[in-house]
Amino acid sequence: MDYKITLPFTEEDMQKIKPMDVLYLTGTIYTARDAAHKRMYEYILNELGQKEPAGTDGPASSAIISEAEKNRILDLLPFDLRGAVIYYLGPTPAKPGQVIGSAGPTTSGRMDRYTPLLLDFGLRGMIGKGRRSEAVEQSIYKNNAIYMGATGGAGALLSKCIKSSEVIAYEDLGTEAVRKLYVEDFPVTVLIK
Asked: Cα separation of 93 and 77, whole Å?
């Protein structure tokens, strides 16, 4: 099925959406790639007083913490993860008159070590390309989240759906800085739900 979705996702949206559905997203999404994920992940672990176990793909499990403590940590991140959608994107520089340069997805697996913790902290959706690890798949199911694919190689076309772009955090990371995007009818395919 095809659905036009106004973000953030509602519970009704989440109930009707199935794998292989095509969604046309309108609303706010955020960009973040490996370096930004690593910073957010390490910040959360530091605030929880945890260290990542050596030789693992992330913490064994998210700490059991109070909602008040979770909210305190979330309020200190560059954007509110609760209900957010992250697009794994490092855009090319915008040409004069453009909002953003080419905006194609990057390989999602590079974020897998960080994703379960971010999902536990309220991340609702991810857009990228490629397979996800078993740990990420299980975390998506556990957190009633969604992984969507954008068409690789179509960055110039996808950029036409992006109506505004603003760097909101980690400007020192250049193209990997966190951006807040407003998109209209941004096409994605549901891969894991």
From this structure: 25
Each residue's pLDDT tens digit in the chain (193 positions)?
A: 999 999 999 999 999 999 999 999 999 999 999 999 999 999 999 998 876 644 455 554 455 678 888 899 999 999 999 999 999 998 888 889 899 999 999 999 999 999 999 999 999 999 999 999 999 999 999 999 999 999 988 888 999 999 999 999 999 999 899 999 999 999 999 999 9
- How far is Cα 63 from Cα 59, in angstroms, rounded to an integer? 9
CA distance 85 to 88: 10
d(CA 188, CA 108): 14
Domain architecture of the chain: domains with CATH: 2-51+62-192 (3.20.130.10)
The C-alpha angle with vertex 8 and arms to 170 and 63, in degrees rounded to 5, equals 60
The answer to whether the predicted template modeling score (pTM) of the entire model surpasses 0.90 is yes
- Give kind and range of the element (H or E) at residue 72: helix 67-76
Q: What DSSP element (H or E) covers 28?
A: strand 22-31
Cα distance between residue 112 and residue 135, in whole Å = 8
Burial of 125 (0-12, 13-18, 19+ CB in 10 A): buried
Cis peptide bond upstream of 187, omega within 30: no
